[in-house]
Request: fold
Amino acid sequence: MESLWLSRAKRLQAIASTGLYFCKDEFDRERYQEIADIAHTMLADLANVPITRIPGLVSDFAKCYATPKVDVRGALIEGGKILLVREKSDGRWTLPGGFADIGRSASENVVTEIHEEAGLQVSATRLYSVRHKAKAAYDPDARDFYKLFFLCERSGEMTMKAGIETSEVGFFAPADLPDLSRGRVLESDIHSAFAFQNGAQRFATFD
Reply:
């Protein structure tokens, strides 16, 4: 779970973003901008990233009402093993997925991500987990978003291959997982996929 101060800094940033979008009074805009500057400085310190990167992490800052982003992940289990991809950005492994694109449903986004990152054609069959990243043990993040996890099934005979953002693709047993990209996925997300598929859990997580 993220720290209380990181949570507060993100909330301040969201208030400043929404305020700058809606307010018309120049005096109020100056105050909201000051709040934004303070929030950005806090986030840079707490997330240990350069302050110049912070505004870019929220691409719609001050352009709309501030709401959490949506991250989708797909779990494809075959022969007692689960599909993972290795991210070029950090060299670690994760369930394929990413931020949802506008114009596609959550399940359509999962299908697209698995095709782009692993070269496979799948169908998303069931939603097995919804998580608020800030409430779980993921690596701290200056952004705020919900994570949706889907069970998937292969729907084509395509050969798996890495994509533009991934360097390797493979299937792993739950007892033999590689080094995970913990900003994206946790061991519990993977174990929950197996439990849900086997009928041991009706819904893995809702937090």
In short: The chain has a mean pLDDT of 89. The longest strand covers residues 122-132. The two ends are 11 Å apart (CA to CA).
